[in-house]
Each structure stands twice: as structure tokens, then as C-alpha cells.
Design goal:
It is built from 14 helices and 15 strands. By secondary structure, the chain is of the alpha+beta class. It folds into two domains: about 260 residues, Beta-lactamase (3-Layer(aba) Sandwich), CATH 3.40.710.10; about 160 residues, Sporulation related repeat (Alpha-Beta Plaits, 2-Layer Sandwich), CATH 3.30.70.1070. A five-stranded antiparallel beta sheet has the order 2-1-9-8-7, with helices on both faces.
């Protein structure tokens, strides 16, 4: 009993010995309103998880992984010390629950699982964290892990964490509402926000992230908005959670007193580094195919030579009647696909939520609504699948290579023209944001009918292919020529 009492008394002493640092920033302009020891490298503790979550949001946006991907928990994640969600090695859980647990409960096992899911290992993920930090201008930060537990060389500063907090607000506004939740469903349990006391006590507070280790003390990056003004305050080295919250409230008050009532919003530049512009970044998921450099040949294993100016006469009346008859037979399945693509729920509120989902133990395979987690919903009206019949046979010629829109993507080879047309229609409805305006073309070869989308520029074709691959659709790019 004496030993337990002794250890309980040592924790506050260790926290009180942690160095103090602080920074206050006008979030709208990036202007520093107050700083103290702001460039001193210190242990960031769980403030680290802001970068882990930033990269998770980026990976979802780029199609490397989806919010509904089931992540298999590695032993390294299950073995992390508290705070933790209680994940078990080999367990499968959706990425969205790992994100919630990391942001709200500050769960170390969830943060490590995110790192493995995106980069394959924590070391590879840490390299990506450091590349992103450098691109953001976080010059005195070096990450060694995804959770923030004390490790030699894992350091950051009050200035750098304030910069990261500002990026979190303006780079991912569709996800930022997560940090203001007092509690949320994390799949295995409902978790409570480690920052809930400040959120409840300070008017306008809406995030962002707490942190604590014995070496770091009680840390916090907080943001509050009142009217048109938004202030970010960062503090390292609090002696207790209550003392930290009181000091951060003072810093936020100082910021609101010093910031102008009106200021032009100057958003931070979106960080660009190797891997953000379409080339492969070391440590990124192998599930994502990214052309590296200038592609000079088709990604198809064996390219088929094309005639110089092929002319294909298509009797559109016969083709349309065949497709219409087949679609009528498959109408129930098609309607299910359309409902999944365009959504049947009412439009989402302005600040989308990471809404509740089925428990991971059930392993429900159905996809979550597009509105959940802030993903952009598809348009509510699907285009008409059939086209008006021309009076003369339609002549389909080789697409022009002018204007740079001479790339394409292939979504499979099928046994009949109807099957290829049907797949093209389904894919177009599911990926309207990138394939809108492209030309759906079926090309007959010796081994079947290729379903192609043509008339894309290189970046759009690459993005469309990555997004389709993330949803399990086979796809490769078709180069000009």
C-alpha cells in the first residue's frame, strides 16, 4: 500500500518538473499573439496523434484506404500501454472506429493500428509523418511513433504543434467536428473526450487535442471561435489537467483580447511533398497504384496495336434494345447499385459527422452512407442510362488526343458487349466526381470486350483509378497513343 501511495505522489511531481512552453495564434491569419519557449523541443505526448489523424484523413481523401476498410489489428498495436481502446491482435475493426478512438479517447493502440493500416509499419508511417511535418514548416519536430508515448528523439515544439493544429482546422473542415464531441461510438465501446472539461467550460471551444506523459506533463492544443474570430492556444508542461485547462483558458482570453475583430482569412497552404502529386511516396500503402514519372507505355501487360483511323459502324437501335431488355431483367440489382451510389438518405447537415455504425463484431459488409465521416455525397439525380436514338448509324472514331484529355482507364474485360456496357454504367454512377464528362467506350478484342473510359487528362485518370481500386474495382490507366 505504501508503494502505491508513493507512486501516486510521484506522478504530479514528475508533471510539475516538465518544462513550460506556450503559444497563442490568430488562426485566421497565422499571426503569433503570444509565445514563451515556443521553439524549445519538448515531448509532445499525445499531441502527436494530430499528425496521425491528419495523415489518416489524407489517405482516405487520396483513395489509399476507406473509412469502412476493416483493419486487422497487429500484435504491436494490441500491446501498446494505456490509454487504449482494448484492441486484440488479429481482431478486425473499421478504420472509422480507430480514428474516433485516437481523436476522442487518445487511444495508443488505435493510433498504432492506423499506422500499420496505412504504411505497413510504424517506422514507415513515422517517415511519412516527418515528411508531412517538414512540408508544413514544422522545422523542430521529429516523430518516432504514431501515438506520442515518450521515446528518445520524439520531440516537437509549441510553435510546431500550433502550426499543425491550424492545418487540422483548415485542411480538413469536414472532419474537424470530431474533436468537439464529448463522446462517440468507437466500435468496441463508447469513449469519452479527454478534452471534455475545457469544451464544457470555455465558451466557443471546439477542440483540438490533449496529451500527457510523465516526461511531457499535461499538454494541450486548443481552439475556440467567437463570431469571426478564431484563436489557437498551445501549452506544454502543465502540472495537472485542471491547471492546464485554467492556463489554456487564460491564453485563449489573451488571444481574443489581442486579435482584431476582423481579419482576412489566409488559409495555410496545403502541404505538398513526394507522394501528394501522383508519385509514389515511400511508406505509402502498396494497395495504391501510382504511375511514377512520365509513362511512355500502357500499363496493360500486352498492348494491342490500334489501326490508324478505325471506323466501327454500330447499329445503336439494336444495341439499345438489347441493353434495355437486359437491364429490365436485372432491374432490382441495378436499383440497389444506384441506391448505393447516389444515396437514399436526406441531404447531410453542413458539418457532417462520423455517425454511428454497426459494431465491428458483426462484420457487416454493407457500406456506410457517403455523408458519414464528412465524405462528399454524390448528386441526388442519376443520369439517364439510355440515349436518344440517332436517325443514322452512329460512327465511332478514335478519340482526339488534343487538349491533353487523351488518357483513359480500363475497368475490365468481359464476355459480351452488354456486360461491358453495364459495368461502365455502374462505375460511372459510382464515380461521378472524376468520370463526369468522360466517354464510355467498349472495344472488342480477340479475348473479349474491354470496358474503357476515355477523354481524361492524366491526373483525373490516375485519381479515378486510385479511388476505384480503393473500393475493390479492378482498374488500370490507358496511355495516349
Amino acid at each position: 500500500m505504501f508503494f502505491v501511495m508513493l507512486m501516486a505522489g510521484l506522478a504530479p511531481l514528475a508533471a510539475r518538473s516538465a518544462p513550460y512552453a506556450a503559444m497563442v495564434m490568430d488562426a485566421r491569419t497565422g499571426e503569433v499573439l503570444h509565445s514563451r519557449n515556443a521553439d524549445t523541443p519538448l515531448h509532445p505526448a499525445s499531441l502527436t496523434k494530430m499528425m496521425t489523424l491528419w495523415i489518416a484523413f489524407e489517405a482516405v481523401e487520396r483513395g489509399e484506404i476507406s473509412l469502412d476498410t476493416y483493419v486487422t489489428i497487429p500484435p504491436q498495436a494490441a500491446a501498446e500501454p494505456p490509454s487504449k481502446l482494448g484492441l486484440r491482435a488479429g481482431q478486425r475493426i473499421r478504420l472509422r472506429y480507430l480514428i474516433r478512438a485516437s481523436a476522442i479517447k487518445s487511444a495508443n493502440d488505435a493510433a498504432t493500428a492506423i499506422a500499420f493500416a496505412i504504411s505497413g509499419s510504424e517506422a514507415a508511417f513515422a517517415r511519412r509523418m516527418n515528411r508531412t511535418a517538414r512540408a508544413m514548416g514544422m522545422t523542430r519536430t521529429h516523430f518516432k511513433n504514431a501515438h506520442g508515448l515518450t521515446e528518445s528523439g520524439h520531440m516537437s515544439t509549441a510553435r510546431d504543434m500550433t502550426i499543425l493544429g491550424r492545418h487540422m482546422i483548415y485542411d480538413w473542415p469536414e472532419y474537424y467536428n470530431l474533436f468537439s464531441r464529448r463522446s462517440t461510438d468507437a466500435g468496441l465501446a463508447t469513449v469519452r473526450n479527454t478534452n471534455r472539461r475545457l469544451l464544457d467550460a470555455y465558451r466557443g471551444a471546439d477542440g483540438i487535442k490533449t496529451g500527457y506523459t510523465r516526461a511531457a506533463g499535461f499538454n494541450l492544443v486548443a481552439s475556440a471561435q467567437r463570431g469571426q474570430e478564431r484563436i489557437i492556444a498551445t501549452m506544454y508542461g502543465g502540472s495537472s489537467g485542471a491547471a492546464r485547462n485554467a492556463r489554456v483558458a487564460e491564453l485563449l482570453d489573451m488571444g481574443f483580447a489581442r486579435a482584431p475583430s476582423r481579419a482576412a482569412l489566409r488559409r495555410p497552404a496545403v502541404p505538398t511533398y513526394l507522394g501528394n502529386a501522383g508519385t509514389a511516396a515511400p511508406g505509402t500503402s502498396s494497395r495504391t497504384v501510382r504511375p511514377n514519372g512520365l509513362v511512355t507505355s500502357s500499363l496493360r501487360p500486352l498492348a494491342r496495336p490500334l489501326p490508324e483511323a478505325p471506323l466501327v459502324l454500330v447499329d445503336t437501335d439494336i444495341l439499345r434494345e438489347a441493353i434495355t431488355a437486359e437491364l429490365a431483367e436485372a432491374e432490382p440489382a441495378l436499383e440497389d447499385a444506384l441506391a448505393e451510389a447516389i444515396g437514399a438518405a436526406p441531404p447531410p447537415p453542413p458539418a457532417p459527422e462520423i455517425g454511428p455504425e454497426p459494431r465491428p463484431e458483426t462484420l457487416v459488409a454493407a457500406a456506410a452512407p457517403a455523408e458519414d465521416m464528412g465524405t462528399t455525397p454524390l448528386p441526388r439525380t442519376a443520369p439517364e442510362p439510355a440515349v436518344a436514338a440517332p436517325s443514322e448509324p452512329e460512327i465511332v472514331t478514335r478519340i482526339s488526343t488534343s487538349g491533353g484529355r487523351h488518357w483513359g482507364i480500363n475497368v475490365g474485360r468481359y464476355g459480351s458487349r452488354y456486360q461491358a456496357e453495364r459495368v461502365l454504367l455502374r462505375v460511372a454512377l459510382n464515380e461521378m466526381s472524376t468520370l463526369d464528362g468522360s466517354l464510355r467506350r467498349v472495344e472488342r478484342g480477340s479475348q473479349g470486350f474491354d470496358a474503357n473510359f476515355m477523354g481524361l487528362d492524366r491526373e483525373t485518370a490516375d485519381l479515378a483509378c486510385r479511388r476505384l481500386q480503393a473500393r475493390g474495382t479492378t482498374c488500370f490507366m490507358i496511355t495516349p497513343g
